């Protein structure tokens, strides 16, 4: 039996094309690029502006069932699908998020796909890339520093130090920073107060960055961001502090989308990286809109399952950005279906069609969710080497019985060739939807009240029987509506592992209640965050983090990166 190569070994074997050639294949001239070495570049402001007059291509969203420790491979399918469409002669661009160092150094891994369906150079992308996440962290923490300095220097705005909303951020999992005290050591070191760090991918600065339409809109969003309340309980904004210009300066270059390629030289725009369990989980609006101007088909993904990433993509990003999706691929694996069917991780190697049948309920709910948006879909069964034929046959039988279009996808093993069936199916359902003149409809209207939006998401997407707001959340809801922010979309921060807010409830739980403990207006981003259950904005590292396996030799070659 031949050795199974790791992702990094496969990536190193690839012969990448100079990034100028990739740009040329998209109809871009060399001056459209700001090059970072041989294989990475940013697209210039001028290029993005010039493209705005072009017609949009069609947009395919890749989502999945609720994730499990067995893995689903959503990014892998996204990349493989893009390569497959290219093999079919389509003009295609892939649009992905940038990885956060938290998962890379922790347990989840990177965000470049895997096997023979990867974006490259994967080492660069998974680590510091072009420095975008560091710039976002720097802008975030500069604002935090300026707030504390303002208070130290006389507090002209009369900020209530007990009501500072803006938190510091770092792009790594560090549970010790969840609750800290700053300003200790005497008068010259600032005003002592509680502080709370978030991981950069969950910060409002990341959300602002990804939802901005251009540099001017970025500055506008930063300017209106509410950072605290004063002693009269009135909101204090960045504009009141007078530092929106300085913060935008720090993000001036980061806001330009990054261009790379897949192993098969399909163009990929990788930009922005919010988490979907805490933030809205999609790459930047600028990147997606630019990709739509450059291609006939754009393949993008949203984090975690359809209850989180896809819902936020369709209700937040699409409504804010005026983006119209055309179809959805819903990724599932036999392994994950078995876990949702009650099988332990250690027992996944055992043939168990019955567990596949039981776990199929989770997939069925996500299909129902996508149907509510009036979008055509295809289920992608991401094939693993250890899948039993009997289990696959059970999956096929269930899909056919319920008249759900599906494709067996083998992109990890075969690259684009392993995604041809999925690509063909998606092209077919897109064509049918055009003929029938059906098109995307959001789940709620922005004019709906915050309570109505919460009810619709929790009941129609999660399948909850009811929604309960804590006393604190009810008070915050009143303040949000009085401030005129009731027309914002809602971004629910919830566990990714379950349709409910309890991570232990796998499959398709019923009769549960979603408990909203806190509502926070992210005015710069333009949405209201609703915290459900015990969701944390700063993850912790596992007992054996991936960082333990990483090293670099004297020639600078990295090992242990997936």
In brief, what are we looking at here?
The chain is 37% helix and 20% strand. It is an alpha/beta fold and 562 residues long.
Task: Describe the model.
- This protein has 562 residues and is α/β, with parallel strands linked by helices.
- Helix content is 37%, strand content 20%.
- Helix 4 crosses helix 18, helix 14 (334-340) crosses helix 15 and helix 15 runs parallel beside helix 16.
Helix content: 25-40%
* Tally of helical runs: 20
Overall average pLDDT: 95
Q: Indicate the proportion of strand residues.
A: 15-25%
Give the uncertain stretches in residue-range form: none
Overall 3D shape: globular
Using only CA atoms, what is the Rg?
23 Å
Alpha carbon gap, first and last residue: 21 Å
How many β-strands, per DSSP?
25
| Most strands sheet | 12 strands, mixed
Structural class: alpha/beta
Topology record:
Elements: H1 7-13, H2 19-25, E1 33-36, E2 40-43, H3 45-51, E3 58-64, H4 74-87, E4 92-96, H5 101-105, E5 113-114, E6 117-120, H6 122-126, H7 132-152, E7 159-164, E8 168-170, E9 180-182, E10 193-195, E11 197-199, H8 204-211, H9 215-224, E12 226-230, E13 235-237, H10 238-241, H11 244-250, E14 258-262, E15 267-270, H12 285-294, E16 297-301, H13 306-321, E17 327-332, H14 334-340, H15 353-372, E18 377-382, H16 389-401, E19 406-409, H17 411-414, H18 420-436, H19 450-461, E20 466-469, H20 471-482, E21 490-493, E22 513-522, E23 527-532, E24 551-552, E25 558-559
Parallel strand pairs: 3-16, 3-17, 4-15, 4-16, 8-11, 17-18, 18-19, 20-22, 21-23
Antiparallel strand pairs: 1-2, 2-14, 5-6, 6-14, 7-12, 9-10, 12-13, 14-15, 22-23, 24-25
Helix pairs in contact: 4-18, 7-8, 9-11, 14-15, 15-16
């Amino acid at each position: 039996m031949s050795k199974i190569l790791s992702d990094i070994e496969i990536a190193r074997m690839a012969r990448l094309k100079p990034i100028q050639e990739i740009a040329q294949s998209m109809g871009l001239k060399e001056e459209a690029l700001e090059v970072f070495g041989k294989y990475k570049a940013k697209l210039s402001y001028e290029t993005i502006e010039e493209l705005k007059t072009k017609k949009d291509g069609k947009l395919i969203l890749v989502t999945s069932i609720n994730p499990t420790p067995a893995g689903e491979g959503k990014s892998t399918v996204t990349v493989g699908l893009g390569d497959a469409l290219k093999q079919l002669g389509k003009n295609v661009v892939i649009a992905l998020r940038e990885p956060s160092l938290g998962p890379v150094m922790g347990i989840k891994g990177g965000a470049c796909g895997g096997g023979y369906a990867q974006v490259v150079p994967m080492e660069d992308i998974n680590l510091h890339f072009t420095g975008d996440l560091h710039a976002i962290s720097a802008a975030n923490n500069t604002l935090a520093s300026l707030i504390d300095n303002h208070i130290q220097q006389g507090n002209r705005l009369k900020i209530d130090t007990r009501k500072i909303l803006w938190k510091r951020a770092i792009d790594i999992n560090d549970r010790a920073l969840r609750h800290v005290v700053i300003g200790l050591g005497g008068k010259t070191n600032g005003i002592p107060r509680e502080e709370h760090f978030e991981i950069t991918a969950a910060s409002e600065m990341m959300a602002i960055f990804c939802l901005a339409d251009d540099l001017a809109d970025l500055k506008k969003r930063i300017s209106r961001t509410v950072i605290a309340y004063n002693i009269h309980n009135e909101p204090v904004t960045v504009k009141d502090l007078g530092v929106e210009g300085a913060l935008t300066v720090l993000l001036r270059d980061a806001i330009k989308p990054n261009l790379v390629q897949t192993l098969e030289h399909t163009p990929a725009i990788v930009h922005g990286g919010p988490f979907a369990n805490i933030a809205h989980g999609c790459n930047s609006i600028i990147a997606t809109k630019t990709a739509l101007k450059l291609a006939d088909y754009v393949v993008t993904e949203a984090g975690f399952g359809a209850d989180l990433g896809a819902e936020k993509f369709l209700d937040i990003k699409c409504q804010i950005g005026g983006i119209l999706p055309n179809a959805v691929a819903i990724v599932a694996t036999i392994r994950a279906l078995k876990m949702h069917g009650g099988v332990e991780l250690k027992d996944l190697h055992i043939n168990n069609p019955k567990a596949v049948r039981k776990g199929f309920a989770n997939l069925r709910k996500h299909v129902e969710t996508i149907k509510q948006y009036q979008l055509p879909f295809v289920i992608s069964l991401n094939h693993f080497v250890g899948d039993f034929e009997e289990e696959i046959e059970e999956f096929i039988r269930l899909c056919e019985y319920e008249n759900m279009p599906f494709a067996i996808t083998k992109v990890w093993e075969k690259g684009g060739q392993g995604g041809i069936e999925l690509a063909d199916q998606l092209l077919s359902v897109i064509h049918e939807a055009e003929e029938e003149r059906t098109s995307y409809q959001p789940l709620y209207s922005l004019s709906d009240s915050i309570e109505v939006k919460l009810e619709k998401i929790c009941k129609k997407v999660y399948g909850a029987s009811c929604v309960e707001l804590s006393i604190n959340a009810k008070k915050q809801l009143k303040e949000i509506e009085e401030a005129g922010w009731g027309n914002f979309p809602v971004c629910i921060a919830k566990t990714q592992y379950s349709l409910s807010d309890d991570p232990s409830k796998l499959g398709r739980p019923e009769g549960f209640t979603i408990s909203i403990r806190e509502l926070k207006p992210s005015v710069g981003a333009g949405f209201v965050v609703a915290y459900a259950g015990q969701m944390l904005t700063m993850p912790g590292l596992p007992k054996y983090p991936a960082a333990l396996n990483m090293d670099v030799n004297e020639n600078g070659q990295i090992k242990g990166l997936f």
